[in-house]
Amino acid sequence: MRPFLSLAALLAFAGLAAPALAADAGVKEQPPRPVAAASAVLALDAGDIKASGLVAYKREVVLSFKVGGVVQAFSVDVGDEVKQGQSLAILDTAEIDAQWREVTANVEKARRDVQRLAPLVGQGFAAQARLDDARTALAMAEANRDSVAFNRSLAEIKAPADGVILARDIESGQIVPAGLTVLTLGDIGSGRVVKVGIADRDVVKIALGDAAGVRLPGVEAPTTAHVSRIAPKGDMRTGAFMVELSLDDTGLRLPSGLVADVAIRPRSQEESRVVMIPASAILEGFGAEGSVFVIDPATSRVERRRVAFGPLSGENVQIRDGLAPGEKVVSAGAGYLRDGDAVLVTDLVALRDGTAKPAQ
Known about the structure:
Layout: H1 2-26, E1 33-39, E2 41-45, E3 49-57, E4 60-64, E5 69-74, E6 81-82, E7 87-91, H2 94-123, H3 128-153, E8 156-158, E9 163-168, E10 175-176, E11 181-187, E12 192-198, H4 200-203, E13 211-215, E14 223-230, E15 241-247, E16 259-265, E17 272-278, E18 285-286, E19 289-296, E20 301-313, E21 316-321, E22 328-332, E23 343-345, H5 348-353
Parallel strand pairs: 1-23
Antiparallel strand pairs: 1-22, 2-17, 3-12, 3-16, 4-11, 5-7, 5-10, 6-9, 7-8, 9-11, 12-15, 13-14, 13-16, 14-15, 17-21, 18-19, 19-20, 19-22, 20-21
Helix pairs in contact: 2-3
GO molecular function, one term: efflux transmembrane transporter activity
Family: Belongs to the membrane fusion protein (MFP) (TC 8.A.1) family.
Pfam family, one: BSH_CzcB
């Protein structure tokens, strides 16, 4: 009986399995989709850090009045070249002039009092205390006069160096408080720099003295520069660090505010190798991340994988994370692929003209 029961059970199982097999047979697997593929390869990375910045004078001086008042007149405008010590702007000094006349008169009176009392004290007709008080009054009057003279000198802005007026923020007739920016002067003798904002991940690679190439509008050949200053603190809003590049050609007369493209080459960073794939393999990108289809060589099926990518280099893109050297990715024909699809790797020409055949 046992063999009979075992056979019956086997037949029953076969009967149950037959519909399932029939159902599976009814679903035809899609034929492999033809695609072009490329291997992730190691390539030399020169390590250039690229950015855009603005040309500026190395020393740009903000000028203001040290006392408040009404601006009487400007002797310069934006773009004017000035010489050191040249008068640039003055306040209305009517009030200060009146104070000057008053304190000057007080000094003269105090001096006469001293001159009058000195012989009287010597002759015994006046007390020494009166002469001492007169001398104290003279000293106080002279101190007041010096204070007014100092304020009078602060009512004028003079050029601290030979330069160019870059900005004028106030008009004649305006009332300005002490310390408010009135003019900005670019010091011609300080040279030109390019100021660029560098991301935190790149600024750590840069050191003072690193060489850079600078491309300027209207100038065919790039000019050279070097890193002369690195800000110790990043911008609170952008996180970027301000880096200054001093142009090696000090004779270039470039306007402040000119846009320049720079490529900084860190000396401390030796040439390294990075993973590169064709840029066409990236399916979509969100910031510095995207997806690629990786081909499993054992099954010829694709796996959709997230990768982190870096800068473009011609038709290729640098992969920072997600791919190992030697892995194959779909470089063309990925438009209708889904994760797990079987593929037929062919050459690009055959893929385009529809005569797909296995790649040799």
